[in-house]
Amino acid sequence: ELHRIPHPPRRIPLMGDVIGANVRTPVQDSMRVARELGPIFRRKAFGKEIVFVGGAGLASDMADESRFAKHVGLGVANLRPVAGDGLFTAYNHEPNWQLAHDILAPGFNRDAMAGYHRLMLDVAGRLTERWDERERTGRAVDVPGDMTKLTLETIARTGFGYDFGSFERERPHPFVTAMVGTLAFAQRRNTVPAALAPFVLREATRRNDADMAYLNRTVDEVVAARRAEGGSGELRDLLDRMLEVAHPETGERLTAENIRRQVITFLVAGHETTSGALSFALHYLARNPEVLARAQDEVDRVWAGKDEPAYEDVARLRYLRRVLDESLRLWPTAPAFAREARHDTVLGGEHPMRRGAWALVLTMTVHRDPEAWGEDAEVFDPDRFDPKAVRARPAHVFKPFGTGARACIGRQFALHEATLVLGLLLRRYDLRADPAYRLRVVERLTLMPEGLRLNVARR
Ligand code: HEM
Questions:
Q1: Which of 261, 299, 398, 442 could form a disulfide with 86 if both were Cys (CB 3.0 to 4.6 A apart)?
Q2: Measuring CA to CA, which residue among 324, 283, 288 is closest to residue 423?
Q3: Burial of 332 (0-12, 13-18, 19+ CB in 10 A)
Q4: Residue with the nearest Cα to atom 34 of ligand 1?
Q5: E strand or H helix at 447
Q6: Is the CB of 401 under 6 A from ligand 1?
Q7: Per-residue pLDDT tens digits for 163-197
Q8: Which of 408, 419, 422, 445 to mutate to test the pocket of ligand 1 (most atoms within 8 A of CB)?
């Protein structure tokens, strides 16, 4: 059925359409192709035919859980050596997915989240100390760098009671360097044919092995430290749940090896994407003075008279939440996810798919489809997430956290953390964009604004 799906005209054996494409920015590149080829297209890369879905209509059809499920392929599959059958990289049929999901999902319910709030405030306090110091010395802040420190500390402390000391270091913690290395390697492996990998990626593979060994070693230390403390009987964080909770029905527990995979999974999945989301939001806030003023008014009003916002005060920042949503619309920091047909089906009533056939949903392209978002879809406008506007849109066209049973387990965590931090920052600072800055987005499986610096001034 593939012949009915358009593809770029140029076909070069082996290298396929990847020639001429920028291998460092595959997502942004695919978005450009989508503009020419429409809501569904295929690109050939190394003998693999990949179908891309960028149209909002087709993407919402793929959200139908009775016909489609998550597909573990490409970038996700390349993370298997690091993340194994951890939640993010597990195949749907692997028993450890359901087991870990059932054990860990309560770690994200309201009560658990309220328990993380204190730690989130503490980490945010480290950030504002740093920004105050930057202001005093007249230096700009490195937004992605600082947001990555913040989100890594937050997931490490709330999830595992571990302190990477990110704010005390000038260079990133070696764990971050190793993690970014394995992510970049996973992305690169997508673009090199398997047969050539042993030659082309020899040096990179060696480095990657060392990075992975380092990640494993660090995690083993974290787990060992907790085991040495002995169980407290109290479930304070994700690690307590991993070590102490048995499945409510089967009584099964996570194995030591699986726990290692989950810890790495959460440290990776739990911070890069949130860091990117915060960075893009700060970029847009600094660039849109009227949006910034409105968001600041809201924070001043809703948090008036409080030294520190309580857990419930965060969700009350409705407008700020729209700013965040709108940033995630234009730059969904986990920019694609794959879906496969559960059985033979017809996508969008038009494209037959066999059981197991899959396509990559280009979230960023779906989020900018004029059919769902209007002719001004490229324009930043938080009012799109006004409840009235949301109701007027078709369902399933906003998917920064993926879809269905395998959607992001950390969604509420990320939204609480990001809204809290943005609220604290806007209450404290005015943001001044560098007029010379042009948004450039780097891709390493996730999206991040490159070289974004802002000047901050205490209000
Ligand atoms: C899954 C996005 C934050 C943990 C996913 C998926 C997306 C996503 C798109 C589905 C991937 C797929 O279908 O293949 C994001 C974004 C975030 C964010 C944009 C921040 C703005 C977090 C946080 C955590 C987390 C803070 C942990 C605390 C996970 C896990 C999965 C996942 C464990 C796998 C779930 C499963 O398959 O059962 N995320 N995420 N994420 N995310 Fe997030």
A1: 261
A2: 324
A3: buried
A4: 88
A5: strand 446-449
A6: yes
A7: 889 999 888 889 888 987 887 787 777 777 778 87
A8: 408
